Amino acid sequence: MNTITQTTIIPRLLAALALLSAVTGQAAEPTALNQPCQPTWNSLCNRQTPQWLRDGKFGIYTHWGVYAVPAQGPNATWFANHAYQGTNTPEHKYWEATYGPMGKFGYKDFIPLFTGEKFNADEWADLFQRAGARFAGPVAVHHDGFCMWDTKYSDWNAAKMGPKRDVVGELAIAIKKRNLKFVTAFHHAENWWYFPTWNTNYDCGDPRYSGLYGPIHERNAVPTQAFLEDWKNKVVEVVDKYDPDFVWFDFGLNQITDSYKQDVLAYYYNHAAAEHKEVVVTYKNHHLPPGAGLLDLELGQENDLTYNDWITDSTVDDGQGWGYVKGQGYKTVENLVINLADRVSKNGYLLLNVGPKPDGTIPDEAKSALLGLGAWLKINGEAIYGTVPWEIPGEGPTQLATNKKGSSFNENNHLHCTGEDIRFTTKGNALYAIVLAWPGDKVLIKSLAPKFNWPGIYSSEIASVTMLGDGQELKWELTKQGLSIETPRTKPCDYACVFKLERKGPF
Predict the structure, then answer these.
(1) Residue-level pLDDT at 416
(2) Where do you find CATH 3.20.20.80 in the chain?
(3) How would you class 260 by CB atoms within 10 Å of its CB: exposed for 0-12, middle for 13-18, buried for 19 or more?
């Protein structure tokens, strides 16, 4: 192509395509990550997943808020909702037995006890980095309406009350300083119905506190325009002030009208385009049209390899506490490793929650679990970061459960795997076989046996077989039963081990 064609025709063509998009409200082609878009689904539903997320795979976010003070489960973030909604709930009975009648001591009265005096953003960011996370950040606002940043849209925020710190701002600086992508999570769409603002027996029915509890309205009323404006303004403010790489939305977007969702998404994506950055939005329960963001499966994982990528938010505690819960257990490092490897092998990513205490410290048990996962990733991260799924996700006898509705995903807090349970990833000329439990003296990878309608692999293709963390070439034999590999004498790590097969040519 000559110089005249390059400098005249191509720019004119691109300008014409842009004009067509603006006039029709339709994208002429899939929206590039750093290109502006219009507030229409045609324009918004062509988003690509950023390469940094495809490569990074694993991140951490924190549920830290006023709910850390009562710290009651099974789900700390829903404790107040359950307590306000009925006098016979365990949460209501605990509240009144511990703090007195709810008519005299309301949720707002926990705020002075939410001190955060030991909160240190650098310590949190160091922990996240040592855990192997490639993206991290806080819940900016939960259902309770208490904002964790210095916002002009509400006096009920952590900069003016409780810790009297701009938590989101401090974490933005600390996390970005470590070259991690910054996450902000938003749950405030559910503030509309989280508290029974129609009940005048409690402080949530007092208009003086509507900035926290949400506007007073009748039961089952639809959100007002003022509420929708507030929802939008808070997201936009965080985007403007802290420039997040990752905006995460909880359930509740089904209550936000299309025009407001479209405006917020277009604003965020266009803000990123102006900054020449790649960003991602995640959502739950199909509350956005496909392609407008990345689908998140809460406490879930797919049963098989999917063509579309996805993310799941899970939590380091052994259950569904989300925020800090007194006396709760925590997942084992082995469980965290298994669930991360399983998700990545099926085209998924993991966002793992941590719930700090009201003083701002992260529980020792959570630290230990995260550091254990980080130690495993330091040895085996080559099989996670920067990889893509193979033709099949894995093999082995241990199967994931499905829920009563027949859903294809399910959280497996106590999944016990064997040396026959294997997950695959690939990168360049390497195929990684992540064996989810130590296999003993030998491992047999059945999926690599050539057979009818499945070529497997040929002996002549294998350049070397090693184990990550050991590095020495291992003895192997390819038979009709599969690829048999002798394991090293010494385990390089305590949990899942990774065999690296290097092929003469890319997989």
Answers:
(1) 81
(2) 51-383
(3) buried
Could you write out the DSSP letters of every residue in 12-38?
HHHHHHHHHHHHHS--SSPPPTTS---
Every domain of the chain with CATH number 2.60.40.1180 lies at 389-403+410-503
pTM of the predicted model, to two decimals? Answer: 0.91
Alpha helices in 311-439 (DSSP H): 333-345, 364-380
CA–CA distances in Å: residue 492 to residues 134, 373, 438: 23, 14, 11
Top CATH class of 389-403+410-503 equals mainly beta
Taking only Cα atoms into account, the Rg of the chain, rounded to an integer number of angstroms, comes to 25
> Residues 406, 373: contact at Cβ < 8 Å?
no
Nearest to 246 by CA among 183, 172, 312, 176: 183
Residue 21 CA to its chain's centroid (Å): 32
pLDDT average, residue stretch 472-490: 95
List the beta bridge partners of residue 282.
248, 294
Domain covering 51-383 in this structure, CATH number: 3.20.20.80
Instruction: Kindly list the strands in the beta sheet with 430-435, ordered across the sheet, starting from the edge strand earlier in the chain.
Output: 388-395, 422-427, 430-435, 497-503, 462-467
Is the model's pLDDT at 11 over the cut of 60?
no
Indicate if the pLDDT at residue 404 is higher than 90. no
